Fold this sequence. Notes:
Layout: E1 6-9, E2 17-25, E3 30-37, E4 41-49, E5 55-63, E6 68-73, E7 79-86, E8 105-109, E9 116-121, E10 126-135, E11 141-150, E12 156-167, E13 174-177, E14 181-184, E15 191-197, E16 222-227, H1 229-232, H2 236-247, E17 254-259, H3 265-270, H4 272-276, E18 283-287, H5 301-324, E19 328-332, H6 350-371, E20 375-376, H7 378-391, H8 408-422, E21 427-434, E22 437-441, E23 443-451, E24 454-461, H9 470-478, H10 482-486, E25 488-493, E26 500-505, E27 508-514, H11 515-520, E28 522-523, H12 531-562, H13 571-580, H14 588-596, H15 600-618, E29 623-629
Parallel strand pairs: 1-7, 16-17, 16-18, 18-19, 19-20, 21-25
Antiparallel strand pairs: 2-3, 3-6, 4-5, 4-7, 8-9, 9-10, 10-13, 10-14, 11-12, 11-15, 21-22, 23-24, 24-29, 25-28, 26-27, 26-29
Amino acid sequence: MYKEILISLLICAAAGSTCLAAERDTVTDNTVISGTCTENSTITVLIKDKADGKIKYICETDSTANGYFTKFKLPVSGEYEVCVRRGNDGVSKESINSSARNEKYEVSSDFANDKNANKFFTADETIGVKTKIQNIYGDEGTYNIYVACYDENGVLINVKRSENIAVEYGSDGAIQSSGMSNITIPQNTAYVRIMNWERNNEPISYSRKQSPNDTMYRDGDVVAFCGDSITHIGIYPYFIEHYYQTRFPERNITFFNKGISANTAEDIYNRLDWDIFSEKPNRITLMAGTNDVAWTAYHGTETQEKYKQESINNYRKIIEKCKNADIETVIATKPITDSSPLISSDVGKSAEKNKIENELVAMQKSLAAEYGLKVIDINKMSEEISDYGHGNGASNVIISNDRVHPTDVGSTILGYCFLKEQGASANVSNVVLDENDVQTDNCTVSELSADANGISFLYSPDSSPIAANANYKKAEEFVPTLTEDINREIICAKGLTGGKYSLILDGNAVGEYSAEELENGVNIATFEGNPNQKRALSAYEKLMKKDAETDKLRAIAYTEEAGRAYDLETDEGWSKFIEDCKNDPNAYFFEQYKQYKPNEESIKTAVKNYTAEAKTLSQPISYQISITAK
């Protein structure tokens, strides 16, 4: 649950404004600024951080007889001042000390993101603005620049906007200078502050609801997935990371895969300090148990109970240690051990093993209830989905032929199960076009035109769809509601007459639909012609490369921990280590260590780079959508 934000109302806008209200929604990350006005006008809402005097948010909104209304995303803590101005009325503000003044030339930091901004004053009371912008995509495009004008006493006297500043083609992430923009400023302007208008600073016109009981990750979270081989070799952590990068591109969330094959709960506890806490997570997900009771199906009841209790005791130790370190623990139950006769391997003791593991899962849930922890019940969902798939004649639904480890398709399904249990939103964005209205959710629509032949508009979504790759499409066979549940990007057009219409995304015809189908809405999320679906596919591939590099770091870390009593740098020490540890279940890590250790720093750099590249590609882009009569 978010902390309450203290908002002090600096002024109730000038003449003609009768009310100003600021409301904090503690369930969403939105602050609502609203008010009434006696006449139609343009309202500028400005929010300043009281701690450092920097302007954080600016929004222009039209006010009618019904008033004005806007929502902002704000950090979870802090104290802010809200200013509202109407028309040409001034708003008094205390002096802002962080801006320096030079009569002819000034270089300072952009107050939003510390990007350099050059400001050129001219004799005719205009200002030439040329800013440095990080060209995230390397594509040609446009940018908006906002200029806040102050007098000698630090009084904000106006906010000017220059739109569609060109950014030229360049390499991904390159710092480029924008084109020059001349902005007329008030005569008594002493200095200005300039910001590049970025997506994560823009006001939003929608609210993402969050249940108080869910565990959706927030901006700034550092998340560690702790487990055994199901986590180590599984791709479900990356599917989850991909969801967050595409659905919430403005959030900075760091994910670590901290699974190690053959680990028990005790093994995870023993490596908390050196392997997990070293990443400074504030949230961990714990999924273990497979190896705790791996072979109890071959022993008597007394031994089974002993192993299950030992596992729970170690779970308790992990929870307590995380609690003392102020780290939130979420219990994720393991997927089923699949005993279906359709799988092409000996059933053996798999049914009995699954029964014992389910008993352990029940104990894990009881422990979670004791500590008030959230449970992500993958076990239950994986059983239901596997039963559905086997009922339709499929052999491998989630689990591979070894009856324990998920396939890549299965691991994708586990990621889906995790997100569903978290309370993940289904919607990427929605557009509803009506004859007299345009309704949007998590997107904006501009440059709208309509005639007898159809409709055309510029579509600017705030999120991207999840990549519908081969694993995703295969997973849909076993989870028919997959796209409906977590990947909805709906385009709806009402009031069209009969006949067929072609739906065109960025110049690519993606299908023909009747007027009735378009009125009901078309989900474009998984269409190959969707530009952001193409980008999402590339983003997911970057995360798969991150996975491969992460595996190398896991081999290094595990080997160094196992070999602490040996001098691994000498031939004698290494040989003794290999001989003594030849029966270690992860002995294959040791030979990998010799290959990867010399390149450890470059591997770490690769992990960071692939993560950044995936996040960049997950940022949505705007494109033209047309609905044309056939």
